[in-house]
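Example (one chain per record):
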Amino acid sequence: MSTELVAGVDEVGRGPLAGPVLAAAVVLRRPVEGLADSKTLSPRRREQLAAELASAAWIGIGAASTREIERFDILRATLLAMRRAVARLPVRPTRVLVDGSRAPELPVPVRCVVGGDRLVAEIMAASIVAKVVRDRLMARLDRRWPGYGFAAHAGYPTAAHRAALARLGPCPHHRRTFRPVAAALARSLGASGPSEWTGSATPAGSSPRPGEL
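Predicted structure:
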């Protein structure tokens, strides 16, 4: 008798003004106590659970870059990230449960679960892993592009982020198709004139490189 391998899939990063959208696919190898929607957990607890999941589950991570978000739109980029996450699982799931109401096309049966990050253990696990991985990525971007506060807000449109965007202009990781970024870019270009470089910010320790991802 074959064993069913259920993968839970969730994403993080649809709403930010900067950074990739990231998805995780998780197949639990054993039960993990304390799983919950990542939004209800403290950063410390998320890190603890992510460390336990590293040995208790098979995990796949997928992302769509800022440029892919701009090219495809945020919904299609999110579905792309989900497909990549499932494809990068080290095992082939027998079915996939996706948080929300939209799911990517996959070569295995897939079902949407609205509120799945509160209801399904595999999706809870995926929400935790996705959040932890993206937060770490945004912390690295914060060191590379100081001034925006990416480590604090992970690219979301907080008042502090909007103020930094107005002051510094966009960096290459800002989503130029999102309205606040497009407005900041227009102001930046209006002040400096057309050029390849789209913002006044400079990465720490180097000169700006147009189109850097």
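Caption: Residues 193-200, 205-213 have pLDDT under 50 and may be disordered.
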